[in-house]
Amino acid sequence: MVLSCALCGKDKRQFKNYSFFMVPKEPDMRKKWQEFAKWTNVLDHYRLCEDHFSVEQIYKRYPRPLLKKNAVPQYVNVLLII
Ligand SMILES: [Zn+2]
């Protein structure tokens, strides 16, 4: 399965330097993500790319960036700059 963003559809093959964050397992957090993205159901493999988070919500660290605890997506409309 291709790793892609469940909101804007960016996929890892095209956006190699992007980070994709898995939907949280914790129910309250999961619900916030769901409400934000307006998903009818949330599946475990759903991910959002870094475009939906503010810089402050992401730890840029090795080997891969992590989302801070309680990070909720904020940006729905993202301009694709290619
Ligand atoms: Zn995205």
From TrEMBL:
Keyword Transmembrane annotated: no
InterPro entries linked to this entry: THAP1/10, THAP_Znf, THAP_Znf_sf
This protein's UniProt keywords: DNA-binding, Metal-binding, Zinc, Zinc-finger
Source organism, top-level taxon: Eukaryota
The protein's name in its UniProt record: THAP-type domain-containing protein
MF terms (GO), sorted A to Z: DNA binding; zinc ion binding
Residue stretches making up the THAP-type domain: 1-76
Organism, scientific name: Hypothenemus hampei
SUPFAM superfamilies given in the database record: Glucocorticoid receptor-like (DNA-binding domain) (SSF57716)
